[in-house]
Specification:
- This protein is α+β, with helices and mostly antiparallel strands.
- It is 17% helix and 41% strand.
- It contains one helix and five strands.
- It has a five-stranded antiparallel β-sheet.
- It is globular, with a radius of gyration of 10 Å.
């Protein structure tokens, strides 16, 4: 996924289907400098890792 698209999704608070390693996630925040996104897994909302934006796939 492109950094700008991920950032827009996070800022708008959109719930858009996004996949990370085969699991659906929601983007919470994007760190421009590190090109990382804070996400949570829809089936494990308490799990909030930072992941590389380039590995996110919009569905």
């Amino acid at each position: 996924m492109e950094l700008l698209r991920a950032k827009r999704m996070a800022e708008a608070g959109e719930i858009v289907p996004v996949m990370y390693k085969g699991k659906q996630v929601v983007i919470q925040h994007v760190d421009d400098e590190r090109e990382m996104a804070r996400v949570y897994f829809t089936d494990e909302p308490e799990h909030e890792p930072d992941v590389p934006v380039r590995l996110l796939e919009e569905q």
